[in-house]
Amino acid sequence: MTPSLIALGKTQKKKTDRTTALIIAAKVIISPEGGGIPEIQIFQNHLREYKIVVDTYGSRDRDIIFKGAVDSTRKLNLLHHAGHFNVIGSLRAAFACDYYCQDCYIPFFKKMSTGVEKPVNHVNRHQNVQRSKIK
After folding, report:
1. Domain spans, the chain
2. Under a CB-based contact definition with an 8 Å cutoff, are residues 39 and 31 in contact?
3. Per residue in 97-131, pLDDT tens?
4. Angle, nearest 10°, between helix axes 37-46 and 3-26?
């Protein structure tokens, strides 16, 4: 076996071990068919420092099927497909966009049609809203 495959195997084992530890700590029971939104809600109750957001696979726009009721800037984004939940490591890559607003769940693309807000204007609008909340 090549060194890179050995390293990959160790990384996968570490992920599996951490996932198993989380399942035990959160007291989640996952059936052989896989988990669903009720199990995600149990994880959300356990992981209070993260806001879990679950999208459904196959939609270029965000079809959110779960959004945790936690007020946190730290998010755990998951993609639900074929009965499994997969971690989204990069929202820009997952939604093939140039910018992704995590406050509004809106992807922005280079080619924008007339009337579509540019990302910089969108970000500025959020910053102005934040400033007005501080005053």
Report:
1. 34-134
2. no
3. 888 888 888 787 765 544 455 666 666 666 554 44
4. 80
